[in-house]
Amino acid sequence: MSESRRVLVVDDDPDLRSAVADALEDAGYRPLTAEHGRAALDLLQRSRDVPEVILLDVMMPVMDGFTFAAEMKKNPRWAAISLVLFTAHADHARVAEAVQAVASLRKPLKLNQLLAVVELAMRFSGTEAAASPGVHS
Amino acid sequence: VTWLQPNGRFHQVRRLTEVTRALTYALSADEILELTIEETAQLFNTEKVAIGVMKPRGGVWLRSSAAVRNGFQRLELERFNALDEDFVAGIQAALGAEKSSSFLAVPMVIGGDVAGLLAVTRQPHSEMAPEDAEWLLTALADQAAVSLEKLRLNQAAATAQKARREREEQFQSLYNSPLIGLVFKSRNGKILDANDAFLSLAGYSRAEVEARSLQWDVLTVRRGPRLDAAARLRPFESELIRKDGQRVEILVGTARLEEQERDLMFVVDLSAQKKAEASLRLLSETSKALLGASLDYEALFRSIAWLVVPRFAEWCAIETVDEGATIGRHVAIEHLNSPDLESALEWRRRFPPDPRSKVGVAEVIRSGRSQLHQEIPDTFLGEYVCEADQPSELRKAGLRSALLVPILLHGKVVGVITLVRASSRARFNVKELLLAEEIARRVASAVENARLYRHAQEAIGLRDEFLSVAAHELKTPLTTLQLQLDALERSIPRLAAEDEKIGRRMSSATRQMDRLTRLVEDLLDVSRITAGRMTLHRESFDLAELVQDVVHQFETQARNVGSLIEADWPPEPLRGNWDRARIEQAIVNIVSNALKYGAGKPIRISASSTDGMARLSVRDQGIGISEDALGRIFDRFERAVPTQHYGGLGLGLFIARQVVQAHGGDIHVASRPGRGAEFVVYLPLLAAAEESATERLQ
After folding, report:
1. How far apart are CA A132 and CA B158, in angstroms?
2. What is the mean pLDDT of residues A55-60?
3. So what's the pLDDT on residue B486?
4. Which chain B residue's Cα is nearest to A113?
5. pLDDT band at A2; cut points 50, 70, 90
6. Which position has the higher pLDDT, B149 or A79?
7. Is A94 in Cβ contact with B486 (below 8 Å)?
């Protein structure tokens, strides 16, 4: 299990993105941010260190969460990343299943919920993410 | 010698001849009897004469000369049933004849039977020899008997004749009745005679009947049983084919006249009755079809056209008229299979009618008034011709009369129904025009209902969509705010040391944040429930435990409003396979409702199990719910009290009930104004077997 504690936050809302990133930083993580799926893929390709956890919004411009998840799964380098769904979608659990997320977070949520789920996802990374049981909050 | 004496035989014979003549003219039995007594008294020169005659139906007719009437009044006539010895003795006594030598009686033979007695007392010194007396009396008795017999026969004949005359009169009045048609037909079906009622119904003349050119089997459509040996058959319904080809529904009764070797047919016109029946049936079926109709106008119109053809018309076209249009657009056409009709329609599709036409659909659209054409005018046919110089396809298809009625909605023509009837049927009349207008009215109200429903559905859909989008949109800023507030709150111990107001402000902001979040969740839940998108994530848990959690959550709030929450648990757990978050949401909504309207008085929560269901009761002692509000308290956006006094979106109980019902449970409320309210939730418990299975899995 790597100890870089990198978390990529993919969300199109800049305020939310920075709020999450700040909160993660305060909790000792190393957050990265991307405004949509395309930007997130570019960032993954550019960076040497792959994040352990990605917090992924579903509805975004340019490239949505579904497409991003599908693209990401194609690259074996990124297979060990834990996907955490971060959405206001009504049926978040089903969406999480569709993109093989290890957990799903429903907006809005409290800070301690966010940190707890990210910590859990961090532990799943590097293991068989797809086969693990989902954690829903 | 005696022949020439005044009382001699010659004189007697002459008198007898006169008596015979007089009796011939007698008109009644009374007259015959009186005359006989009178003449007998004269011829026998005595005042004591009596005559007794058996009445045809029993009893005795007794007449006597005036001198002995008293004696006869004493005679009890009822005891005489036959002309026996008692009767003769009675007569003798009544006449006052002591000795049998002075009494003479002879029988009267009427119709071969002894049916009477003529009796007389002889003068003691009569010059008449006994044998003469006997001959004379017998002659008188015979004359009276013959006269009586003749009278009886005449009376019988008169009665029979009268009866016959009456029967003939009765039949004649039946024959002349305009209500029932009568037809005499020979055994091979030729019509021999018919009354005026039948002739006018069938449209034939008397001359045609007299020419013996009409056959019963040609004039009627056989539907009934074949005439056979049975002289009378039950009446049956049939159709009469009129001379002009139209068909009329009739009821036929038959009587077989064996001796005359012919049949008498009774024919009753059923068309009015059938039409009335058919109209009612058509209207009721129209209403039924419209009630069950889809919201799609075209399907609705098609179902009406399909109903109307062929029983009301051979052709039915319904066109819709768009706002401001001068011609319609066919949306439903139903007609009998005919290539001529097909090509007529094709023509109409290619060349729409002239909107300035004074007859036909264009005029109906312009005026909003119906048209009744007993004979379709050529200008109307022009809308359905193949080539300008060819006879109309409609005419070729045998169509003759037409009805055009507008479908009016708020005074505007939104459609036109065209009905055309074949020439083989009766032409449309004013009554049928009214029927068609009634159908059009019902169609119009169905169209109106469909329109209103569609608008309402669209409005509801728009609102739900708005709610859903709004709730989603609200979530993003809420999430950011929540995270920022949480992060700030973590810094508070440090900040509060500098300013205690910051702590108060932070907790107030956090509370309002929670409240906003809940409102948004409720809105989103409603749109989800309405769209049928609520999914349950079931797991096995103890309801009592969950309720305890909820009570714990509400402790602060309860203290703030001054209410005390008292809870009561059964010793055993209440396990069910439920969605924990959803059930918690339902209970939270009910408890917060109780706190909100509980007027600061204690709230009692108790749980138990009953008949495989968990029963949870939440009871307050607050303002209660009025009777009319009880029925709608679980509806969307409903509240039992005016909005200005109590906040909230009015969604809590709606969501609670939807959640409970989605779990196969139910929720009830009992309340009286000012006496508090009790909400009772029932949720299906896990059966013992399921429970142990679940426990093994865990």
Report:
1. 120
2. 86
3. 87
4. B483
5. very low
6. B149
7. no
| pTM exceeding the 0.95 threshold for the entire prediction | no
Q: Does B346 touch chain A (CB under 8 A)?
A: no
The two three-digit tokens of residue B117, written as one number: 């007695």
Nearest Cα residue in chain A from B487: A23
Q: What is the per-residue DSSP string for B33-45?
A: HHHHHHHHHHHHT
Going by pLDDT thresholds of 50, 70 and 90, the confidence category of residue B298 is: confident
Q: Is B139 exposed, middle or buried (0-12, 13-18, 19+ CB in 10 A)?
A: middle
The Cα B404–Cα B334 span in angstroms is 15
CB contact under 8 A, A90 and B477: no
Does the CB of B146 have a partner CB in chain A at under 8 Å?
no
User: Checking DSSP bridges between strand B565-568 and strand B603-610, what pairing results, if any?
Assistant: parallel
Size of interface A-B (CB pairs under 8 A): 58
ipTM: 0.76
Token couple for B148: 């009586």
Confidence of residue B383 (pLDDT cuts 50, 70, 90): low
Report d(CA B252, CA B258) in Å as an integer. Answer: 19
* Cβ separation B524–A90 shorter than 8 A: yes
Q: Give the chain B residue nearest A21 (alpha carbons).
A: B483
Structure tokens at B265: 């047919």
- Provide mean pLDDT across the span B632-655: 68
Alpha carbon B59 to its chain centroid, in Å, reads 61
Best CA proximity match to B431, nearest among B503, B507, B374, B502: B374
* Min Cα separation B516/chain A (Å): 10
Contacts A112 to B, Cβ<8 Å: 486
CB contact under 8 A, A107 and B517: no
Helix (H) or strand (E) holding B49: strand B49-54
Q: What is the pLDDT of residue A131?
A: 39
Structure tokens at B387: 């080539």
| Consecutive H or E run containing A93 | helix A92-98
- Residue B579 CA from chain centroid, whole number: 53
Write the residue in A20, A91, A93 that is nearest to B483 by C-beta: A20
* Parallel/antiparallel/unpaired status of strands B329-335 and B315-320: antiparallel
Considering all CA atoms of chain A, what is the largest pairwise distance in Å, rounded to the nearest integer?
36
What is the rounded CA–CA span in Å between residue B62 and residue B644? 114
Query: Which of B475, B484, B490 lies closest to A19 in CB terms?
Result: B484
Say which residue, A93 or B632, is predicted with more confidence. B632
B122-131, B229-238, B459-468: the lowest-pLDDT one: B229-238
Q: In what order do the strands lie in the sheet with B60-64?
A: B60-64, B49-54, B113-121, B103-110
CA distance B394 to B384: 7
Tell me if A23 and B487 make a contact (CB, 8 A cut-off): yes
The amino acid that residue B518 corresponds to is: R
